[in-house]
Amino acid sequence: MTFTKAQDVINYLYSLPKLHEKADLTYIKTILAMLGNPQDQIKTIHVTGTNGKGSTSYYLSNLLQKAGQRTGLFVSPYVFEFNERIQLNGQNISNQNLVGVANKIESVLTKIRKNNPAFSLVTFEYEVVLAFLYFAHEKCDYAVIEVGIGGEHDKTNVITPEVSVITTVGLDHEQVIGPTLADIAREKSGIIKENRPVVLGNIPKEVLPIIQRKAQKENALVKKLGSDFNVLLQENLEYQDQIQNISFLPRPLVEGYDIGIAVQAFSLLNLSLSASELEDAINQTTVPGRYQILQNNPLIVLDGAHNIQAMQNLLNFAHFKQKKKQGKIRVLMMMMKDKDIEQVFKLFKPADEVHLTTIDYPRAAKKEDYSVWIQKKYQYHADWRTSYQDLKHKSQTNDILLVTGSFYLVGDILQMEIKDARSRH
User: Fold this and answer.
1) Cβ-contact 54, 146 below 8 angstroms
2) Would you give the distance in Å from CA 263 to the centre of its chain?
3) Are 278 and 337 within one domain?
4) Are 291 and 392 in contact (CB under 8 A)?
5) CB 3.0 to 4.6 Å from 353: which of 147, 202, 269, 330, for a disulfide?
6) Which domain holds residue 301?
7) Where is the domain boundary, 227, 262, 283?
8) What pLDDT is stored for residue 279 in this prediction?
9) Are 197 and 300 in the same domain?
10) Torsion over CA of 166, 169, 172 and 173, rounded to 10 degrees?
């Protein structure tokens, strides 16, 4: 097969199966070997965690660029367009490059299938191979690689990174890498490699020993939030470790932890940035769809929180803001069918005005996918555009409007707002 258009590549990717029968790395290692192991031709930083891994990856990418490094970034999901998943120095992969790299993969797949006709890649595997091949071709100095799900069995786990990062451990994707928190911690600890340092964020006390044992076994230096470095929210966001104390523009504390983890991981590389350059790199970073403030009065915040831990963090942030503003919290919510819907909805306070909606996407939950008690308690509007406009119109100066539950909804609303702003000008 030969591709001519980027959209053809994307459509093909989404037509592939999602999982192999067995969750191992045989397939991806086979094709990478045939391509000359591009993942070994670049230095990498490997980032996993239930929450915060995307933000941490963006902050790390900006720090590396500030230090003059040609920097690749592989993240998911995307907010605006698929090409966001694979970036070079903050620029999305071009359609032309996407097509070119995909065609190289296709020619190798054709060779493999001569001996093994049944050989095929799943969607995420193909995306990972696209990223590594592109980064190697572009001669990146470093690439920041965000894990898809878990760690040990994730398709990105074919690298020996300069630094590994585990941001948080919480409940999400339990059906794939669970069911318990201990199972999830074990799976995430699979990215720790021999003699390579690991940076840990907020890890629950009950599973911390699992990760520490893995680090000990691999002789990996551990740097942990709260003991080796710290982040405090005062007037500004303060980062502290044994060597430096740096002040950043204020952000939600949970976002501050991601910043702290990124700064600590960066400090383990043999690269130098002054305190003011570090500040600039962090302060200039925008993470699409994560605590993204659209406007201030009323405060409209877009965040793709889609699991218990992320939603609790977002609501803590909103309720903290509400104490100062003395207004009402409204929430426009859309979730995927396969998420912990029940548990997430138990986090809302009685005073929170929650509205359900959906988008045109096969995994998006519709009204009948919610429990009867959720359907009875909260209004459902199938048209997200109308629902968002109504809530925005209803919100007074002191109110807070959260758009959350999925990056897909956040992306749709961001695109709509951008189009509206352009048409006004």
Assistant:
1) yes
2) 17
3) no
4) no
5) 330
6) 292-424
7) 283
8) 97
9) no
10) 60
